[in-house]
Amino acid sequence: MSVHTAKRRLAPSDIKALKGERPIVSLTAYTTPVAKLMDPHVDFMLVGDSLGMVLYGLDSTVGVTIEMMIAHGQAVMRGSSNACVVVDLPFGSYQTSKEQAFTTAARVLKETGCSAIKLEGGAEMAETVDFLTQRGIPVLGHVGLMPQLINTTGGYRSLGRNDKEVEKIRRDAAAIDDAGAFAIVIEGTVEPLAREITGKVKAPTIGIGASPACDGQVLVVDDVLGIFTDFKPRFVKHFANLAPVMSEAFATYAEEVKARSFPGPEHTFQLKKG
Ligand code: KIV
């Protein structure tokens, strides 16, 4: 009889169980080599639709397609064996109906092998979150600042600064929690509200620009590495500064190619003698 001792990947239920135990660590990931480096250090990797801006140079996440998310979800799965992997559903792929959301989410799970999806939305998406979770699809919610709504909300600014915003985010978080999300991203929200929601909901809250009061934190990996330097919101910290390192490497490569000092003899194939 064989005994299976292989370590299994963290599951969405493991992430949920961390609430109240210790802070949950998450980053976005989009590619295999970065996922490999990140895998031992995070509880879950989010294949975020931020890849539209970070990797593809789009102005917003609105233009991201399901095919992009699946290709990068597969790449991140190939580079990881420890962390739970969650893939974002892109704009337009789930809002029409709960049935559309199920079809898209099932395709993402089948074609990438990831174990959960994320979707943006509050009270208006609660029925969909319930429909998916009842049918075997773990959902990471996303409330507060919702980048897919940029065309109706008009900007990326922190929320919860007036009674109307506070009431909406409070209601959104409660609705997604009651609908069964295993965790809830709170983006761009003032600390007192993030703290209040974290204390009230059953699911762990994962903050991005939502203060240390959340149960865990997520950041965009290119921000953490100091690669994406177009703009730096207040909540971002560069844990490394790779942009100048990369620039210098490209400049040195160009110089050496022009000077014919690269490739050198050690990089060159020769015919074997004799
Ligand atoms: O797309 C993304 O990267 C996200 C995170 C910023 C939470 O949704």
TrEMBL record:
Protein localization: Cytoplasm
Catalytic activity: (6R)-5,10-methylene-5,6,7,8-tetrahydrofolate + 3-methyl-2-oxobutanoate + H2O = 2-dehydropantoate + (6S)-5,6,7,8-tetrahydrofolate
Subunit relationships: Homodecamer; pentamer of dimers.
Domain of life, source organism: Bacteria
Keyword vocabulary terms for this entry: Cytoplasm, Magnesium, Metal-binding, Methyltransferase, Pantothenate biosynthesis, Transferase
Known cofactor(s): Mg(2+)
Gene Ontology CC, one term: cytoplasm
BP GO annotations: methylation; pantothenate biosynthetic process
Protein name (record): 3-methyl-2-oxobutanoate hydroxymethyltransferase
GO terms of molecular function: 3-methyl-2-oxobutanoate hydroxymethyltransferase activity; magnesium ion binding; methyltransferase activity
Residues annotated for Mg(2+) binding in this entry: D49, D88, E120
EC number: 2.1.2.11
Binding annotation for 3-methyl-2-oxobutanoate: D49, S50, D88, K118
Pathway as given in its UniProt record: Cofactor biosynthesis; (R)-pantothenate biosynthesis; (R)-pantoate from 3-methyl-2-oxobutanoate: step 1/2
Pfam families recorded: Pantoate_transf
